[in-house]
Amino acid sequence: METTRTEGMLGETAGNLEETISSLAGDVGMQLKGKAGELRGKAQQICADTSDLARDAMSSSPLAVLAAAAAIGFVLGALWASNRDV
């Protein structure tokens, strides 16, 4: 996951740089593109961090993770069933 985290950091930096340059030039479209690249990089970093946390949690306490997944599935199923128009 280190590769994904590094790619995210590079994408965030490139997007930030593009946003700064386009803001100096006054190009709003390019500025938005830079902001989108920055946010994509941040999201990629968060995804890498989350997958690392999930992997660590699974290896340290698999039963707790299984119980949490079952509880989340039950709640989502109950919400879905209560909103059906049958």
Give a summary of the structure in a few sentences.
By secondary structure, the chain is mostly helical.
Strand-helix topology:
Layout: H1 2-25, H2 28-60, H3 62-82
| Number of continuous helical runs | 3
Structural class: mainly alpha
Major β-sheet annotation: none
Number of strands: 0
Overall outline: elongated
Give the N-terminus to C-terminus distance in angstroms.
45 Å
Helix coverage percent of residues? over 70%
- Report the mean per-residue pLDDT as an integer: 82
Keywords:
86 residues; mainly alpha
Task: Describe the structure in your own words.
The protein is mostly helical. It has a domain at 2-60. 91% of the residues lie in helices and 0% in strands. The chain is elongated.
